[in-house]
Amino acid sequence: MTDHATEQPAPAELVLEQISKTYGQNRAIGDISATIPAGKVSVIVGPSGAGKTTLLRIITGLEEATSGRVLFDGEVVNGVPEGLAMVFQDYSRSLFPWMRVEDNVAFPLRRRASKAERTRRVAEALQAVGLDGKGRLYPWQMSGGMQQRVAIARALACQPRLLVMDEPYASVDAQTRAELEDLLLSIQAQLDITVLVVTHDIDESVYLADRIIVLSKPPSTVTEVIDVGLARPRDQITTKEEAEFVHARAHVLRLLRGTATPDDASDVRVA
Amino acid sequence: MTSMTHDESTAMPRARLPHRVGPLLKTGAIRLIVPMLLVFLWWLGSRSETNGLFIAPPLEVAQRVISDFLSSDPRHFFLGDVARGDLVPSLWRATLGFWLAVVVGVGLGIALGLQPVLAALFQPLVHLGRSLPTPALIGVFFLLFGTGDWPKVLLIAFGIVWPILFNTIDGVQSIGTARAHVASVFKISSWDVLTRIVLPGAAPKIFAGVRVALSLSLILMIISELQRSKNGLGNLLVSNQRNFDYPGFWSVLVALALIGIVLNVLLVQIERRVLAWHRGVTLQHD
Fold it and tell me: Is B190 an 8 Å CB contact of chain A?
């Protein structure tokens, strides 16, 4: 993995500046400003319908904001930024069932890297997600968790500077979910990439995040930005026993329910 | 392809079968029982005093098939006179019409499937074309394209393009927006989107259309040769009937049945290879 780490480009910083989005009469996003720091894991949580998916589409350049702008390493995003890769929620629809696993992972690299380079990167990416030797299989011959690993490998093969994940573990069981959370954290630590995860799972947001961005109901605004100081590497059992984890979790939940004001978070920030 | 060993016969429930049927099922011999029964009924019919005049006995028909359609001459590729004079021209026209329909149907289907505006514009025309009974247009095709091979080829193509066209549009639209998102986020080139996402994604539906088109093409092949034709199996069918050559008439029918079976087996084999992934996905969801 060492050579992989050395050629990995520097992580990107993402800045959202007063983003708003209106569909006709419907204001989906009110005003969102936030910084996704380079080389860290940031998590966006919000109640359902909070425009999380819309925000992701704006960040990935698939949709234009009504006002405001997105800066990818200081440059205004206009179309899908170079160096951004994405893991989608529904692996069964994001992977191509007519391609073998290795072809799925290599697909974004076609016309961008030589055959030898592609083969090497696919092997490295599959190894990074613990699927070495599975390249010849088809996605539908694998479990849901393994398929989502393929989707992560496909994103990693692009050597992204920013990895965006949209509810990545919403369609797998709890056990697999925990494994994939740990996989993401170990990959992020090894490769030093900026990771942005959107989730509605509060435990997951606290466990993964260096920074949590809590959104309000639509028209969404940032309710609060919480920096999580939990030590790394994190552990599914011991980290979740720590007082800060328990406090942060309760605080995010109160924010989402609207029964807490940002000021109550003082204990979280101190810890 | 390692996991593709699944076979339909093993998927059938085998519990509580009387044990004598077991070996019949395993070897597939059970499928031969009904055809054999039909041949037997055919033979009975040919023995009848009145119907026997029109129904040639199976053995005589089989001999005619062999003598008309096969030869021992390697210079003619072992094809008999009738095969060279009628079967080959018929199949040539059907093949040409078939491929013309596949190219036009899939090409147009992809364009209409990807562009909702185009689809809306051409929908009335497509529905009109589909609902016209093609055999009724045979006169029009002769008027427009003369009397050679072209009116027949184009009639076949026109008659069978609709199931391919409809299924391709449907198949393209079934691929979904999620895959389109993947393509744009990963900046897949339009050519790769077309050849590696749209075409394979629509392939299961396209094949369903092609299967219908294939059997339709044989029907239209015969119909197009029933009039103003110098050769072809359809023409032979009519002339044998007029000349009271009933063994010859029946031998053409048998040849047509055999062609139908061979073409279908070919298509199934191709489909198995091309759509192996689709069978896998379907089995997984069962």
Answer: no
- Which CATH number is A2-83+159-270's, of 3.40.190.10, 3.30.565.10, 2.70.70.10, 3.40.50.300? 3.40.50.300
**ipTM of predicted complex:** 0.88
Over the stretch A163-195, which tens digit does the pLDDT of each residue have?
999 999 988 899 999 999 999 999 999 999 999
Dihedral of CA B247/B250/B256/B257: which sign?
negative
Tell me how close the Cα of A136 comes to any Cα of chain B, in angstroms: 9
Question: Which pLDDT tens digit goes with each residue over B181-232?
Answer: 999 999 999 999 999 999 999 999 999 999 999 999 999 999 999 988 889 9
- What residues in B contact A84, CB-CB < 8 Å? 185
Q: Which residues pair with B107 in a beta bridge?
A: none
Domain boundaries, chain A: 2-83+159-270
**pLDDT by residue (tens digit) across B118-161?**
988 988 988 898 888 888 888 899 999 988 899 999 999 999 99
How close, in Å, is residue B231 to chain A by CA atoms?
44
Is the separation of the CB atoms in A71 and A32 below 8 Å? Answer: no
pTM over 0.90: no
Which residues in chain A are contacts of B201 at CB distance < 8 A?
A: 96, 98
Q: Which domains does chain B have, with CATH numbers?
A: 85-231+259-276 (1.10.3720.10)
